[in-house]
Amino acid sequence: MRGTARIWHTSPGVVRRWVRRWQENPDTDFSDRSRRPKHCPRQTPEPVAAMVLDLWGKTEYGRRRLALEMQARGVPLSEGTIRHILRRAGNKRVKRPRKIVYPAAWAWEQGEPFALIQTDTKDVRDKGSLGTALVRHLDLKHLPRYQWTACDGVTRIRFLAYSHHLNSTHGIAFMLLVLLWLRAHGIETPVSFQTDWGQEFGGDDARKVIRLSRQFLEPLEGHLTRYPMGRKGYNGRVERSHRTDDEELYRPILLTLEDSEQYLKMATRWLLFYNLRRRHTGVGMDGRTPFQGLSASRCCRLSCWTISAPTSC
Q1: How far apart are CA 174 and CA 238, in angstroms?
Q2: Are 152 and 274 in contact (CB under 8 A)?
Q3: Cα–Cα distance between 111 and 237 in angstroms, integer?
Q4: pTM above the 0.85 mark?
Q5: Contacts of 218 by beta carbon, 8 Å cutoff, 6+ apart
Q6: Half-sphere exposure of 110 (CA within 13 A, CB side)
Q7: R_g over Cα of the chain
Q8: What is the pLDDT of residues 207-255, one digit of tens each?
Q9: Is residue 131 left, alpha or beta, with left meaning phi > 0 and alpha meaning psi from -120 to 50?
Q10: Is 247 exposed, middle or buried (0-12, 13-18, 19+ CB in 10 A)?
Q11: Is the pLDDT score of 113 beyond 80?
């Protein structure tokens, strides 16, 4: 037994089982057989299982609603029991596939500037990032709470705006400001604004997203696109830029700002520094500033370019 098991790279117990089967019937095959127990005292009775299957066939309810219906009929069953009954009968609930609103795109797949603009909002009033003192100062001075950010996936050039409220009207207004600014400076590339599933960009209502895109952006050759829910890596460059805002703008300077006018002036200086002077070491940047990366792309007439100030929505 042991020598045969060694040759076939198996255990002696398996060899004994094969030999016993062959002794009982020389014409038997050696395929795996069912290991189902011959007696199962806790199995749901067949009439009850038939009742569950009949109810499922008429209603196609999920196991939770089936459990409630069975309880109402005087036959209490758990959700797990109903699941096992449906699985044994081969009746699996077919989930409706989530409708893909738009295919997501990675920044490193883009070869042309402004073809993909990662768009997001930042709640400046984040106690975990700024601490209690800065958040209290923001509230006392009534400074704008929300930062709207659009970051080009290729060059990292950013556009900023600020508002006191967060809603879809501000979201559409911000994307239109960016799109109109690009068109005014000779950029004719179709622009895709890739956002998360926030309500300010249409939420999880696919029809609303399509309607907003067609009504406001498509006349200017823009689109509103989404990345898969929970996959922030698709918008990694704009997400990373928000961390830079905390480290280099809000933490060092916010306590010195006394009103919204100073706030926006400082944001303007920060935006100019970020686009024109701050060097980046990310993929494809090689220590260049965003504006140098745009200059290297040669996608537009740089002589007509200016860097606009942030806008207060």
Answers
A1: 15
A2: no
A3: 16
A4: no
A5: none
A6: 24
A7: 31
A8: 889 999 999 999 999 999 988 888 889 999 999 999 999 999 999 999 9
A9: left
A10: exposed
A11: yes
